Each structure stands twice: as C-alpha cells, then as structure tokens.
Amino acid sequence: MNNIMFQGTASTVGKSILTAALCRILNDEGIKVAPFKSQNMALNSYVTEDGKEMGRAQVVQAEAARIKPTVEMNPILLKPTSDVGSQVIINGRIYKNMTAKDYFSTKSSLKGEILKAYNKLKSQYDVIVMEGAGSPAEINLRENDIVNMGMAEMVDAPVILIGDIDKGGVFASIYGTVMLLEPEERKRIKGYIINKFRGDVKILQPGIDMFYEKLQIPCLGVIPYANLKIDDEDSVTERFDSKTESDIIIGVLRLPYMSNFTDFTVFELEDNVSVRYIKDYQDFEGIDLLIIPGSKNTIKDMQYIHNSSLKTGIYRAHRNNIPIIGICGGYQMLGEKIIDMKGVETTLESINGLGLLNTTTEMEETKKTTQINGKIMIDFPFAKGCNDMEVTGYEIHMGTTKLMGDNTSIINLEDGRVDGAINKQKNVIGTYLHGIFDNDKLRNLILNNIREKKGLSIDNNVNYEKLKDMEYDKLAQLVREHIDMKKIKDIIHS
Prior knowledge:
Blueprint: E1 3-8, H1 15-28, E2 33-36, E3 39-41, E4 45-47, E5 53-55, H2 56-64, E6 76-80, E7 85-90, E8 93-99, H3 100-106, H4 111-124, E9 127-131, H5 149-155, E10 159-164, H6 170-179, H7 183-188, E11 189-197, H8 201-214, E12 219-224, E13 248-253, E14 258-259, H9 265-268, E15 273-278, E16 289-292, E17 294-295, H10 298-306, H11 310-319, E18 324-327, H12 329-334, E19 337-339, E20 350-352, E21 359-362, E22 368-376, E23 390-397, E24 400-403, E25 411-413, E26 418-419, E27 421-422, E28 428-431, H13 440-454, H14 464-482, H15 485-492
Parallel strand pairs: 1-9, 1-10, 2-9, 3-6, 10-11, 11-12, 13-15, 13-16, 16-18, 18-28, 19-21
Antiparallel strand pairs: 4-5, 6-7, 7-8, 14-17, 19-20, 21-24, 22-23, 22-25, 25-26, 27-28
C-alpha cells in the first residue's frame, strides 16, 4: 500500500500535527514522503507557487517533509462564510459558495478529482501520509464520505486512530468510535495512539491492557502533551486563550471570521514576545502593536467591530500612538468604506470602515491568489530603516482598494503593481501581503523599535525558517520517542 491514514475520535485531537511528525520522521530516514488530506475545512490557507489556494495544515506537513506544498496535497478546501455555508475551493480555484446541504449532495461527484490528486502524489513519492477530518464515527455524514473511511476505502489505506486524553474519556471515545463503524471499516484500524498525555504512563498502562481485552487493537504509543510553536489547522486552537505574556505584547483582534492567524505564529518564536488575541476593550491594555487580521467575511467582521467594544479600543490605541497594521481584510477595514454592490460577501451593499486610512474597497467576484515579491518604498517610524527593503508574501483576497487624499502606497510589487497604504502620521498601515511578518529584517526592525522604547536588548538574529524547522525537529523527536515506529512502518508496507 505504502500509505497510512490518521483519523481521530474528534476534531483537534492531533491528526494534523502527527501527520507532520510522521512526514518529518520518514524524511529523516531518506524516504520520499508527502501529506494528503482530501477535504479540509479551515480559514487558514496558503497560496502555492502556481497561484493556487490550499489548506495551511498541509503546508505545515509539506514543510515537515521538506518538500514544496502543492494543491494536490489538499484538493478540496472549504472556507466557512457563515454558520451554514462555505466557499468551496477545488484544486486551488474557487468552485462556488455552497450551503452545507448542497455540498453534502455534491461530495460524491468529487471523488474523481480527489483520486486524480492522490494518484499524482503517489507517482512522485514513496509514502503518502493521509489525514482525516473530524471523526469517522459521524454516522450522519458517512454516506458519500470522502475524507475519513470513504477516503481510506478509495485508496485502500490502513488507519491509525488518535484519541486526545487531555479532553478526558479517551478510552470511551476510542471504543465508541470503533463500535460505531461498520465491520469492514473496523478492520482498517491497525492501532491507536493516545495524544496529549500528562503524567506517569505507568498509571495509564492498566487501562491500555484492559482496553485490549475489549477490542484487540494495539496501542502504538502515548505521546506527552507539548507546547510546540507550529501553525494550527484552524480557529479551534488553544493559542487564542493563552495567558502567557512577555515583555512585548502583540495585540491581534479576535474576529469571528478571522483567517490566516498563521501570519502571527512567527512572533511566538521570538524570545520576549507574546501574542494576545483581543476579545474586548480591556484586552487592549499594555499592547505594543495592534494588528487587524485577515477575514473570510470582511463586512460581517466590520459589523462585529462596530457593535462591540473593540471599536473603542482601536481608537484609543490610535490616540495613544500604538502602531496599527491591517492585513488583507484588516487593511480593508481600516479604510473609509467597504462596498459590496455585487453581493460577494453579504446582501449589505456597503459599510463604513474605521476611517484610519483614506481608502475605499470594492468587493469583486474574482479572487486574487498569488505569491509576490516587492520592495518597501517608504520608511515607517516604527520600523526605522525599512525603506528599500525587499519583502515576500502572498495575496488571497476578493476586492480592490483605492487610495484617496493624503494616503500613499507602501510597497512596489515585482509585477508592476503597488500594495498597501500608510496614513499621514505614519502610524497606521494596511497591506494585502499575508506572511509579511515572516520577513526577518522587517519583523526585527518592528520589534527592535519596541525593544528600544522599553529598554530591552536588541535582537537582529532571529531566522524564522530556521526556528520553524527546529520546531519540526522537536516534534519529530517527541513522537519518535513515544510511538512504535517499527509497527508503524510495518503497517505502511503491509
């Protein structure tokens, strides 16, 4: 078979992270390995070199495997636009917006595209490490399933089930999951892994022994809880509620439709920097930089700001000369008005923005997805020395922003366009560039300006790619030490 699939008893049990771990472990052994997830639902996405959009989790897994991410690793991406609907992206391109009901009836017709993507990877790599979604025991979704047991059947993949002991009831969740499956599906499960364990594993061992008496499925490992600074799959993440804070606090608005919060993972890798996700007025206290993130529904998130204490907090931060940076949808919200006459996001034809930039955005039906290179053409007071600095990033947006009055663009792009805007006082900036903080030189200037103000030591040596790769190595070592790799390999090659 030369493949293996991680499925879970629920969402956020660790499927994505263990897929990444196995990709790094196998790559360390010289095996050509690639990740695969047929269908991903997430607001964190990425643009490939050929301008296609895919889920961020498979990008992390590709990086762990030391290969370039391609859209074949995630042929279907669902980006929620409301409680009952999503933008459906197939092979990196928008298909259409669909309700959950409509998509459910469409899924079976997508099997051909999924198999085409999988087979292309299979022809290029020795092993495919696959990831399911949610739980295979969601029996109301079993018909036309294309991401859990349905996917395993399509490519005849063995399955490892993951349970999260940190949630409690791990044996019940594993047992219940298995027993809700059909007999043929149960045969696919070759073992289970207990994830996020805290404590002495000897105390857990009697439970593992008793469980085997009930279901002859072996435990392949118990992985300790670890605080790894690796991008999360979606907005169901523990990092939003983190109480750990450092000398420098980066404030990020926690919006209902926030997308690509992976833009801020890099700050968490800095020694004396923490990220605070802001939910109300009190959370603005003590921040050194305010970021308004991207959004999958800019207009709804703008309404949310207008109707909450966040608006007051933003204006107070501005009066106190706290630098404000808007990324993508956040850039659009900083302007005077957002216009949606074509109903791209909502039936609301227009909404007032925050008015901190003299810009107007008009929503369009065509999505811009591209990797870009550019050069900053103005010096920011909170990043002194950034003028003429080269930066890279990627665009994912639907809409065009026009500058008016005394605002100026900030980046000359390699393709001849310009990007972003800065206000006259030069303390509010907007840009469409996701990943802009991944540029080490720019990020170091921003942080060192804050360090200087606070009397902290200057640090110019942080290399994001190197630090990120070290986290993948830490993950691989942790998992390698606590799972039976011999049995895992036997399962892959059985």
